[in-house]
Each structure stands twice: as C-alpha cells, then as structure tokens.
Amino acid sequence: MILLPSLEEIKDYLMIDFEDEATDRTLERLKRTADVYLKGMIGEDYPADDERAKQVALLVIEDLYDNRGMNDRTSTNRRKMIEDFVLQLKLELRRKKDDSSNNDSEA
Predict the structure, then answer these.
(1) What's the CA gap between 32 and 75, in Å, rounded?
(2) How far separated are the first and last CA of the chain, in Å rounded?
(3) C-alpha span between 11 and 62 (Å, rounded)
(4) How would you write the chain as a 3-class SS string?
(5) Which residues are within 8 A (CB) of 47 and not within 5 positions of it... i.e. 6 or more apart?
(6) How far apart are CA 58 and CA 52, in angstroms?
(7) Tens-digit pLDDT profile for residues 9-23
(8) Which of 50, 100, 103, 56 is nearest to 81 (CA)?
(9) Taking the model in full, what pTM does it have?
(10) In angstroms, rounded to a whole number, what is the distance separating the alpha carbons of residues 35 and 9?
C-alpha cells in the first residue's frame, strides 16, 4: 500500500497547475517508482506515512520528472539514482535466485 504524497501534493510540489491525463499518469508512475526506490533503500516496511519519507519521495519524483531524458547534462544525483535502481534490481534478482535454490535443495 502506497501512502506517499497524493497526486495533488505532488502537483503542488512541482508547481503543476493544469489538468492533463498524460501528466497525471506520468506522476502516478513516478510515485510508484519512488515507493519502490524507498523500499529498496530503506526496507519493505519503511514508514510511508512519515513526513521524511514523503519528502524523499517528492525529491525522487521531482528529479525523475524534471530529467525524463538522459543526456550529457544529466545530474549527478540522477545518475546515482539510476545506479541505485540497477543495484537494487540486481540484488533482488540474486536474492530470488538464492531463495529459489534454497527451496529446491530443501525439497
């Protein structure tokens, strides 16, 4: 369950004052991405209703929204975030593989 900032809070933070379905879908996707990022960085049961977690989520969403394309001017923070995502995914895949191997050997 995602208890991070609402779509309205995200739009306020990003100073988006117009209605656009494509933008709303993008922001909802980025909200889910921020949730996964925080789960990978903090843990599955991180306090999603904590104001600090909400602020981190807003910062992640802002960076992803403002820098939707990779180019030579991509921020160092964005590159770090991408590296973190890749590392998290690799570790999760390894963990799933290890869990699968352990389950197979126990059978």
Answers:
(1) 21
(2) 33
(3) 10
(4) CCCCCCHHHHHHHHCCCCCCHHHHHHHHHHHHHHHHHHHHHCCCCCCCCCHHHHHHHHHHHHHHHHCCCCCCCCCHHHHHHHHHHHHHHHHHHHHHHHHHHHHHHHC
(5) 53
(6) 10
(7) 999 999 999 999 999
(8) 56
(9) 0.69
(10) 15
Residue 7: CB atoms within 10 A of its CB come to 13
Q: How many Å apart are CA 6 and CA 79, to the nearest integer?
A: 26
Within 8 A by CB and 6+ apart from 16, the residues are 10, 23, 27
Per-residue CA distances from 42 to 1, 7, 35 (Å): 16, 23, 10
Amino acid at 63: D
pLDDT tens string 32-42:
999 998 888 88
Residue pointed to by tokens 């306020």: 12
Residue-wise pLDDT for 66-92, tens only, equals: 887 766 566 777 778 767 876 887 787
Residue 6 sits at φ, ψ, to 5 deg, of: -75, 165
